[in-house]
Amino acid sequence: MSYTSYTDLKSVEESTIVRCPFKNCHARIIQVGTLPKVNVENSPDMTKLSEDDNMKQTETYFYQIDDVWEFDNIGVSRPAAELKEPIITSDTNEKVDIAVERLLICSECDKGPIGFAGIPKGSENHHQNLKYFLSCASVLYEVK
Amino acid sequence: MSGRAPSRSYDMIMKLLLVGDSGVGKSCLLLRFVEDKFNPSFITTIGIDFKIRTIESNGKKIKLQVWDTAGQERFRTITTAYYRGAMGIVLIYDVTDSRTFENVDNWYQTVTQHANEDAQIFLVGNKCDDNESRQVSKEQGQDLAQKLNIPFLEASAKSNENVDSIFYELASIIQEKHVDAGTGGNAANSGSGSVDVSQGGAAGIKNNCCS
């Protein structure tokens, strides 16, 4: 089975499966389905699949996941205070203010970070309010 | 059509907790200590709060949410909220430290006091790879599990022995219970009554994994 990187991806279908990018793992993370894609500036540093990715880090796309049960496999770190503050813009040009406090790793090989999670500002600091952001360029795609 | 919920991609969800004295290797069952350039040490320092893992058991797709205690056990401050909604509890001791084995009874009392009546408890003797330092025999573990009437496994997060088996066996037992009860699990109310370990899990608690 071969998987495609984000830069080589021609189109994303609802049936496309997001997989762990790391060799000998490639665990299934989530099905793309109808996940909204958002633009994130100043995100915490994410796993890069190739060195070229260094060139275009000013704008980065992430899938936004509001319900953690949508994930098939994911590891969520404990809160860490020292992470960068991202600026998140959705398709509708709505700015979302998220207090980033956690990183996402592959639940099987424990490598990452492949995303981050945080609480929208103004919401109660409770894990049930966490929003999850999966870095499009940090994972591989299985196109069916 | 707008506002339609995506079709459910699982048959059942289960919240599982890891409990036991600090230092028994609970965190290592969630986050193996791997030295790798892709695994910056800050992740191992921050530690893992919980993992979602999807497994297949008896032909059903089961999503497990496995929680670590975020070091709260050190201060004996694990709150009732932490146990709320948990369907399975993995009670862990360290086979190389008999004090942690002696504390299993205390943990068992605490768990039965706070957790749901039908929560399934599972006893695990961790670090079974370390035969040189072993202080608790496998037979002692088996005897205690029999006395408490709960399933038992010895495991090693270090060698990865039986780590997956813990979760598969526990999930399978819970699944059978719910088939027997005819409830089919609580997949419908995902998100509600979820396990709360956020208090005390604040930034700065260091996770000394695999010390």
Task: Describe what you observe in this structure.
The complex is a heterodimer of chains A (144) and B (211). Chain A has 144 residues and is mainly beta. Chain A contains no helices and twelve strands. In chain A, a hairpin with an 8-residue loop joins strand 2 (17-19) and strand 3. The N and C termini of chain A lie close together (11 Å). In chain A, 47% of the residues are buried. The mean pLDDT of chain A is 87. The radius of gyration of chain B is 17 Å and the shape is globular. The chains are: A mainly beta (144), B alpha/beta (211). The A-B interface holds A 22, 28, 31, 33-34, 47, 67-82, 101-103, 105, 107-113, 125-128 and B 6, 9-10, 13, 30-32, 34, 36, 38-40, 42-43, 46-54, 63, 65, 70, 190-191, 194, 196-198, 201-205, 207. Chain A: One of its GO terms (molecular function) is zinc ion binding. Chain A: Keywords: Guanine-nucleotide releasing factor, Protein transport, Transport. Chain A: InterPro entries: Mss4, Mss4-like_sf, Mss4/transl-control_tumour. Chain A: This is Protein Dss4p.
Bin the helical content of chain B.
25-40%
Radius of gyration of chain B from the CA trace? Answer: 17 Å
User: Which shape of chain A, going by the Cα principal axes?
Assistant: globular
Strands of the widest sheet of chain A, in order across it, are 6-9-10-11-5-4-7-8
Rg of Cα set of chain A: 14 Å
Pfam family, one (chain A): Mss4
GO molecular function (chain A): guanyl-nucleotide exchange factor activity; zinc ion binding
InterPro entries (chain A): Mss4, Mss4-like_sf, Mss4/transl-control_tumour
GO cellular component, one term (chain A): membrane
